[in-house]
Amino acid sequence: MDLCHVPATREKGWYLALMAPNVKGPNYAWLDPSRLYCHPQGLQDCVADLLQPFQGDAIDMVAGIDAMGFILGAAAAATLQKGFLAIRKAGHLCVQTVAQPYSDYSGREKVMEVRTDAISPGLRILLVDQWVETGGTMRAAIELVERLGGIVAGVAAICMESSEGGKWIQERYKCSHCVPPRLQPRFDQHQ
Which residues form the Phosphoribosyltransferase domain (predicted)? Predict the structure, then answer.
């Protein structure tokens, strides 16, 4: 798809066609949304679709998850006129942090951390990531926010797969994603 082309009718998720399939093998995610971020209208519509369910909700801050969640999270924070907090993979912050181990979508054990001075008790945080596949990364971010006394105001991602972890998150938190119901089975099966 042309990075300048904007369809005459823009249904929710039209920009999903901008994503590119994995050509490098099983150590990589099955789709790469980064081309979507290069398309000005695609990025704007994606962020608008992610934020639509939270219109009128109390959100004090947006937190994006390392690394691709930084893009959508920062765009969402700018749209909402809220601050942005980066939840990082361990070892990147030079300040006091709290850490949480987790397994990512590939099954690799990792550790995520967040600075201890950014979340005060009762702060309502919208968590944003590019993708929720198994839910391990997002659950670690949720744990960090709640351990510091923050409230998860919602979870937003381009896609939330219907995995056990994805369902766990959707059952407990207000969630938003961009995949229309008719396409969800294809995304769940990585087609």
Answer: 56-177
The single-letter DSSP state of residue 55 is T
With H, G, I as helix, E, B as strand and everything else as coil, classify residue 124. Answer: strand
Tell me, yes or no, whether 15 lies in a domain. no
Instruction: Please indicate, yes or no, if residue 39 is contained in any of the structural domains.
Output: no
Model pLDDT for residues 97-120, shown as the tens digit of each residue: 999 999 988 888 999 999 999 999
Query: Tokens representing 22?
Result: 């994995």
| Beta-carbon count within 10 A of 20 CB | 12
116, exposed or middle or buried, with CB in 10 Å at 0-12, 13-18, 19+? middle
Give this prediction's pTM.
0.94
Beta-strand relationship, 175-176 and 151-160: parallel
Q: What is the DSSP letter of 94?
A: -
Q: What's the domain count of the chain? A: 1
Q: Which residue did the predictor score with more confidence, 171 or 1?
A: 171
**Cα 85 from Cα 124, distance rounded (Å):** 12
Comparing CA positions, the residue from 71, 84, 152, 156 lying closest to residue 118 is 84
